[in-house]
Amino acid sequence: MDAVIAINAAYVEAKGRTFFAHQLLIENPLTSDALVNNTLEQLRQTARAGTSRGDEQQIEQTLRTFAALVGVYAAIDYASPQALKTHAHLAAGYLTAEVEHLIPQNIPDVLMEGTRLIGTCANVLLHAEGPSGITTLVQKLGTIGCSGIMKEDYRAVTLTSMEQLASLDFDLLRTRAPDIGFVTTQIRESVRLIATLFLGVPDTPLASAHSAYLGPYYSVTSQQAFLAKLVQLANALADRQPNDEDARQAVHNIEEWADGLYKPQKEILLEAISQRSHFAFDMIHWVQKVTEVLVVVSNSPACEEHSRDELQHHALWLISVLSWIPDDLDTVKFVEGFQLTETLFEAAMDAQRHTSAELAERIVDLLLSWMFKAGRHASGWARLERSVYALASLALLAENDGAIPKLKAEIGKRVCAGELPDQDVADRAAREIRGRARTLYPEGHWRSAIEGLLSQVDHAKLRPLPEELADLISPSTVGQATSRSLF
Fold this sequence. Notes:
The protein contains 24 helices and no strands. The chain has helices spanning 2-15, 34-53, 56-74, 86-101, 108-129, 135-145, 147-150, 155-174, 181-198, 209-218, 226-238, 245-258, 262-274, 279-298, 305-319, 329-336, 340-353, 357-375, 383-397, 403-416, 423-437, 449-454, 459-462, 464-473. The mean pLDDT is 89.
């Protein structure tokens, strides 16, 4: 196999710029090359012979040869910078066909290796031809990744596909090639396809299988996952100078990548909630963290004004995905187990911290809406009370002097509209809020971000506001307060 690769490399070098590339709408018989065609066909037959005999080493060696030839043919100079890498695509097509042929053969280790090689070839074509060169391979990765849904033995193949898609998505953010929008949409669609179908597989209660196998793209804790790399990129952009061309290109790429990002995330999140999968935790926190990254990038020195507005617009659409969560009691209990109120609060804090006042105000509106959707149910989670303290603290920190009157007016309007139908829940929450306002804690280490902020703000300014909000929620209990706190 090494000899085959060496012969083809020598042939490419000897033939130089005399290769012909495929051209759209024009059939050129000189595009076909006998040595290339014969090499790929012989390799195909070798792979099929190995499959019929169950010889895994022979199959893997043949697949690696296909991948190596993709690299060899990608170096062909067609004497035109716009030329398609025709022969590299031909070799990649042979590779993907053989990998797909392995799906019913029950050899998951070989299928995993083939999936990795497809990702490697996509990376080669991305650097040789640009984003348009990897569209077909991205679609194939999505199709192959779904094989883990049919057979439990193939779950590792799903994991490998997600790893390759996450790696390609991140590589696109760093490419100097323009117009990555279409390809990122294709990657997003492949990820959505795998995720939504895989969520139909029964989850495991302790170590979530959904989180494990979809983790390369959606994990918020792994340092090898897509999100961790995205955070590193955002931090690097924050240190670059305004005239840094590479930084400007990266900002533009992230802007294109974020356009429409909310659509598949909304579908995946709602499916995870519907299936009561613990993967909903990953999705909720992934949405919040990526929103923060977009805000950070929008404030980087190399970000131009137009891109800044677009990035913050995309950030708002992404965090608004959380507003689509149903408000029935079972769903509220489920998502609050993953700290949805805290997540919205942290998103608003991040926006304020990064001087995105308008975005912070819109996220506060989302938190206020969730307060009434979730707080109407009595379930012992103190959602209404926690939301009031979160909103009061954010209003005090807002630079806008009208934040507090607006908050009071909005809560009063919603209460009058009957958005807290259970008066007992409202009365109990109001008493707890007043009791808590009179016993604010000193600074300390808190597991809750809301509690942490409560301990830091000026208590003299904070104390009257929650009581006023409690009076709006429950006018009939004015002056009544409990002597204990649910926090």
